[in-house]
Known about the structure:
212 residues, mainly alpha, two-stranded antiparallel ribbon, 67% helix, globular
Amino acid sequence: MSDSTLKSKILVWDAPVRVFHWLLVLSFAGAYITAESERWRLVHVTLGYTLAGLLAFRLVWGVVGTRHARFASFVRGPAAVVQYLRSLFSEAPAHFTGHNPAGAVAIVLMLCTGAVIAATGWATYNEVGGEWLSELHEGAANAMLLVVGVHVAGVIVASRLHRENLARSMVTGSKTGDRADAIRSAWWPVAVAILASTLVFWWLQWQGAPVA
């Protein structure tokens, strides 16, 4: 966190985190939209598997990734979350270079609900378990949609309070901050590998699709 030493634009979000973020948005949104359509079932399943793969990557990257991508750098206890939320109503809201404590809660919730969605979706698709798994799958998807909505609202509020476009920073990777908080590399080779693996998987799914 840095309030008095904000100086310039620095690299905060590495390329793998950014590619993961937008692929997750695309996968969840697409899977949610196609959930009730039998015609688009293969698309729904493909995006569901993609979501599962992305979550697996994020869990690994949250341990071995760059500074602000690591869970240890932003996951905090309830006291830190409450303190941050209180600061939003003060004249000097607490500023964090990486994820703020409230955003960290949303991220953890999305990872957890995403894991439930992927597991119950696989079980439902492969007819493992009963109807309750299908209902849990749908409930988890709706819960994640709610978390996403709160997360988006939080991004908008924080962007206005701190006068910085947080959504744009997840595209460019840059935020205003202390130079000492910058990461050294964007790790583009890893990001390219994630995107390429996703596109190859989608292509294989398309090639294996049954002919109507």
